[in-house]
């Protein structure tokens, strides 16, 4: 049906969607000025002001270059046609499965000389490949990020955590990169779970190319998403831009392994800024790939970055009230059940030979009356044995008296 034949409400909705995807194609995502224009005028009028010369400066100049003489309607038609041909879905904030958490990005912009810190606003649209609703896929999700040049330790940690989270019904969000990202994605898929890869390029241009098979599997069983239209190349700065989306989509971010200058640390910083759970996996102190994790744990207040080593600890940080991880403890020992006085009496019994109750009481520092009341009970329970009118330690298993 032609847009002119649609009811007025449907036509208006289509005009908004078209304006959103044109803005998403003409302007790099996250920009403050574009967000201000759309907030003030709405997507349709903001686009109109941008292309008709009502706005000046770098934003308008960049948009004009990309428009390259085409009308916004023609540009929108090209984006829709290419997306349909590639089987790519397009979401805008007006879509029913747009994740509400992305709106939080408008709160973390920081004035200063660095555009990465200033231009942190929500995307105008997202391009997706995959069978799931995005809002459902990220409702219970954890981001896992880390070093590209991972160690065996990092691969083990990412695999254990990724598989365990997916096995517990949580989605794993990451960036599709070499190393920790890829191990986290593969582990979630191996567990039969959902994983979401947030790309810094078009969803039809998997990067790195060696992960093409992984991206194809994610597109079939999970979700590939991007703020950039199909065909967009992966420039270095775009990886830093997309990190804010990884952090915003998830309930928390785990830094699995990272060098001192790792870009993954920026994703953890975004999680802190967004007041999401921020976690780091401690590693060997001799490993350069754990320096970033240790610095995050050492420099940030304890309540801002938490050390985690198990799935249960991650879920304690991102789950509901009362979902506490069990406290690690060693194997139970027979003497663990004794009260302090009983333990004192057992400790006072010689390891070789035996002793009478009076000597045991003296060595334990208790009264003879207390010793005479407790020692027979300890013998009945197997913690001691009667020996020549006194008491001795139990015999080793298999040894006869």
From TrEMBL:
Residues 113-306 form the Smf/DprA SLOG domain. GO terms for biological process: DNA-mediated transformation. It comes from the Bacteria. InterPro entries: DprA, DrpA_SLOG. Belongs to the DprA/Smf family. NCBIfam families: dprA (TIGR00732). This is DNA protecting protein DprA.
């Amino acid at each position: 049906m032609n847009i002119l034949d649609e009811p007025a409400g449907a036509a208006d909705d289509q005009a908004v969607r078209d304006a959103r995807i044109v803005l998403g194609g003409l302007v790099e995502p996250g920009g403050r000025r574009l967000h201000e224009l759309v907030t003030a005028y709405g997507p349709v009028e903001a686009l109109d002001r941008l292309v008709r010369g009502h706005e000046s400066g770098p934003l308008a100049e960049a948009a004009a270059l990309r428009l390259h003489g085409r009308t916004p309607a023609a540009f929108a038609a090209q984006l829709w046609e290419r997306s349909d041909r590639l089987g790519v879905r397009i979401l805008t904030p007006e879509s029913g499965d747009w994740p509400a958490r992305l709106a939080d990005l408008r709160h973390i912009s920081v004035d200063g000389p660095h555009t990465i810190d200033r231009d942190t606003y929500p995307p105008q649209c997202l391009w997706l490949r995959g069978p799931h609703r995005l809002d459902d896929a990220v409702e219970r999700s954890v981001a896992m990020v880390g070093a590209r040049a991972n160690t065996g330790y990092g691969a083990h940690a990412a695999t254990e955590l990724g598989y365990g989270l997916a096995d517990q019904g949580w989605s794993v969000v990451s960036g599709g990169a070499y190393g920790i990202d890829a191990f986290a994605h593969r582990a979630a898929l191996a567990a039969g779970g959902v994983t979401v890869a947030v790309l810094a390029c078009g969803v039809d241009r998997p990067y790195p190319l060696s992960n093409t098979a992984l991206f194809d599997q994610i597109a079939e069983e999970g979700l590939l998403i991007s703020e950039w239209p199909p065909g967009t190349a992966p420039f270095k700065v775009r990886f830093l831009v997309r990190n804010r989306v990884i952090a915003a989509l998830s309930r928390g971010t785990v830094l699995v392994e990272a060098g001192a200058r790792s870009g993954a640390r920026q994703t953890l910083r975004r999680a802190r800024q967004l007041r999401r759970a921020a976690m780091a996996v401690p590693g060997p102190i001799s490993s350069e790939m754990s320096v970033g994790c240790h610095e995050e744990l050492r420099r940030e207040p304890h309540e801002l970055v938490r050390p985690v080593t198990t799935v249960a600890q991650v879920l304690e940080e991102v789950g509901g009230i009362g979902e506490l991880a069990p406290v690690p403890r060693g194997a139970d020992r027979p003497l663990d059940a004794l009260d302090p006085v009983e333990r004192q009496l057992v400790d006072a019994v010689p390891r070789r030979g035996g002793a009478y109750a009076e000597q045991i009481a003296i060595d334990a520092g208790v009264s003879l009356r207390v010793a005479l009341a407790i020692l027979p009970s300890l013998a009945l329970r197997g913690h001691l044995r009667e020996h020549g009118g006194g008491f001795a330690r139990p015999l080793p298993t298999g040894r006869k008296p």
